[in-house]
């Protein structure tokens, strides 16, 4: 049964309900180690709650032998030192993909030319020619990012069989840097959803617990990196689709500033919010990918001419870290994100992360973003409105599925009725409604006004702080099917991320802890937010945070069994 269609007024009134936050002031004693101790004992005092985090050294969660390291750099080193061939590396990933894919289902299409391309890299190594920075690196690409000679469906039946004649700019840049596209990853249809259950083809499973969702809409890209089916991957983030799955799957996810990466070749969902982002198993890998795909593109008028720094080179090696590497960094913890309606284990992980940042020398205070809860309904009105216009191009004439019909209007109508899934139809109806004469002022215009407020509240908070922190999602990964018939509950799960897209600023999610659930705990991600074009700052902080985190190993049980 497709979910019932809700009108935007209902959406506006309901969306706020589960997020009536009562701010819980964080009272920290002056001594950080005492604070940590107190925080832990407060957590264990609450341990009747099954989701309270355990950070005891004897905890059931496996401990970290060494901090996450760059897979990209280690591949490069193995190739240059001739310890391994690109073909050998590709074979290892393809083998793991073959073994894990029946359970995980991350990919909609796996490239047939991976081994051939890897052998080409080996020939370059043999000849002593210069290698691109991503030579031999296997990358998964979300299926709404166009790839020449490979299907690109955006997770929709309406584009089944569509093979673009061109590569998206981001894909072209990755290929020019030597990367090998391993395949196209599963996603909610056109990016509308938070679980991959909205895919027209299959549901991806979370490698941490295959009965749970990987998050979405870039769930396939996150699960593929988590299950080590590829080294890194591209996703897209309109309202959190890179950050929420990164949190659910225990990987690093980066949503760049709007305009940092060209959208040319990214299937438009909500053009004023869409960005291409990336996933990796370490912060440094996301920095390297960001470097490869950033920059102005004459095919995307909204892409920025802002200079691209060498993101990866600002990351300090762990051996060079002094005891207070974040000394003086002003961190604002968003009060509205750590109150009622948020899983206690998640809140606990975020507060522990705040303490960890303090131990590294940062000054953490609570900040309030007054318009925070308005962001969710405003996002759904704006995103649906833009989608209703963007998706009009799928008419059965230009691409993909075409219905048989005697009249042109039926051809359009039937092709769309057959090709689009229920969530996409609901969004098109909601968006058309919000834009229609008589309702425009009440919905679309008001949502734009809220967007202005959101931008201003982020600007104010980021004028006083270097970064803001929050959870990336109000809960860890939930069960497949749990929210599939309750669109409002699903939308409410986007509360932590949508404001960042409305403000157009960058955000990085890095694994920060576990809550109970699944076989070995479920990962939780810390969202770090900075001002526009401050990705370098985010990556530096994220890298230090990740390299100094103790007792965590972000390898899903599927790979250690
Ligand atoms: N879950 C949100 C939505 O359905 C965000 C999606 C996205 O970022 N692509 O719109």
Main features:
561 residues; alpha/beta; 11-stranded mixed beta sheet; 18 helices; disordered N terminus; binds glutamine
Write the layout of secondary structure elements.
Layout: H1 8-15, H2 32-45, H3 71-80, H4 86-104, E1 107-110, H5 114-127, E2 138-142, H6 169-176, E3 180-185, H7 219-226, E4 232-237, H8 243-249, E5 252-255, E6 275-280, H9 283-293, E7 330-334, H10 344-359, E8 363-367, H11 375-390, H12 408-419, H13 422-435, H14 441-464, E9 467-471, H15 487-492, H16 498-503, E10 507-515, E11 522-529, H17 535-548, H18 557-560
Parallel strand pairs: 2-3, 2-4, 7-8, 7-9
Antiparallel strand pairs: 1-3, 4-6, 5-6, 5-10, 9-11, 10-11
The protein binds glutamine (GLN).
Explain what the structure shows.
- With 561 residues, this protein is of the alpha/beta class.
- It has one domain: Amidase signature (AS) enzymes, CATH 3.90.1300.10.
- It has 18 helices and 11 strands.
- It has helices spanning 8-15, 32-45, 71-80, 86-104, 114-127, 169-176, 219-226, 243-249, 283-293, 344-359, 375-390, 408-419, 422-435, 441-464, 487-492, 498-503, 535-548, 557-560, and strands at residues 107-110, 138-142, 180-185, 232-237, 252-255, 275-280, 330-334, 363-367, 467-471, 507-515, 522-529.
- It has an 11-stranded mixed sheet with strand order 1-3-2-4-6-5-10-11-9-7-8, with helices on both faces.
- Strand 2, helix 6 (169-176) and strand 3 form a beta-alpha-beta unit.
- The longest helix has 24 residues, at 441-464.
- It is globular.
- The two termini are 37 Å apart.
- The structure holds glutamine (GLN).
């Amino acid at each position: 049964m497709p979910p019932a269609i809700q009108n935007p007024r209902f959406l506006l009134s309901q969306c706020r309900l589960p997020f009536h936050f009562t701010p819980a002031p964080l009272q920290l004693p002056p001594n950080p180690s005492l604070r940590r101790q107190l925080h832990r004992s407060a957590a264990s005092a609450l341990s009747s709650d099954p989701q309270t985090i355990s950070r005891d050294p004897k905890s059931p969660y496996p401990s970290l032998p060494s901090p996450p390291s760059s897979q990209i750099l280690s591949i490069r080193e193995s190739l240059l030192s001739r310890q391994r061939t690109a073909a050998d590396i590709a074979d290892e990933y393809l083998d793991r993909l073959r073994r894990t894919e029946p359970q995980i289902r991350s990919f909609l299409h796996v490239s047939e030319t991976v081994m051939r391309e890897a052998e080409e890299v080996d020939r370059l190594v043999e000849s002593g020619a210069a290698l691109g920075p991503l030579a031999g690196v296997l990358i998964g690409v979300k299926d709404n990012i166009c790839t020449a000679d490979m299907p690109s469906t955006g997770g929709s039946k309406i584009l089944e069989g569509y093979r673009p004649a061109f590569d998206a700019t981001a894909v072209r840049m990755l290929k020019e840097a030597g990367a090998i596209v391993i395949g196209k990853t599963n996603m909610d249809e056109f990016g509308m959803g938070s679980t991959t259950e909205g895919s027209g083809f299959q549901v991806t499973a979370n490698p941490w617990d295959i009965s749970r969702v990987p998050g979405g809409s870039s769930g396939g890209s996150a699960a593929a990196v988590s299950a080590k089916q590829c080294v890194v991957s591209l996703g897209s983030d309109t309202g959190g689709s890179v950050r929420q799955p990164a949190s659910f799957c225990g990987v690093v996810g980066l949503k760049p500033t709007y305009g940092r990466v060209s959208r040319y070749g990214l299937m438009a969902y909500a053009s004023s919010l869409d960005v291409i982002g990336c996933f990796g198993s370490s912060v440094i890998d996301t920095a390297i990918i960001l470097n490869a795909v950033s920059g102005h593109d004459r095919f995307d008028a909204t892409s920025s001419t802002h200079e691209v720094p060498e993101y990866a080179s600002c990351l300090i090696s762990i051996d060079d870290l002094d005891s207070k590497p974040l000394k003086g960094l002003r961190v604002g913890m968003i009060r509205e994100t750590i109150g009622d309606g948020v899983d206690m284990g998640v809140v606990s992980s975020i507060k522990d992360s705040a303490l960890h940042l303090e131990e590294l020398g940062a000054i953490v205070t609570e900040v309030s973003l007054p318009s925070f809860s308005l962001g969710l309904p405003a996002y759904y009105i704006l995103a649906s409105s833009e989608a209703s216009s963007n998706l009009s191009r799928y008419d059965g004439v230009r691409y993909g599925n075409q219905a048989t019909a005697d009249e042109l209007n039926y051809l359009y109508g039937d092709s769309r009725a057959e090709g689009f899934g229920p969530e996409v139809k609901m969004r098109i109806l909601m968006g058309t409604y919000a834009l229609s004469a008589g309702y425009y002022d009440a919905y679309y215009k008001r949502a734009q006004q809220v967007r202005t407020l959101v931008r201003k509240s982020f600007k104010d908070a980021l004028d006083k702080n270097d970064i803001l922190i929050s959870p990336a999602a109000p809960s860890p990964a939930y069960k497949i099917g749990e929210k599939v018939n309750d669109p409002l509950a699903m939308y409410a799960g986007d509360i932590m991320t949508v404001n960042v897209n409305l403000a157009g600023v960058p955000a990085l999610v890095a694994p920060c802890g576990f809550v109970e659930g699944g076989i070995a705990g479920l990962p939780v991600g810390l969202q770090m937010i900075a001002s526009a074009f401050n990705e370098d700052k985010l990556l530096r902080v994220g890298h230090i945070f990740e390299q100094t985190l103790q007792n965590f190993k972000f390898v899903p049980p599927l790979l250690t069994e």
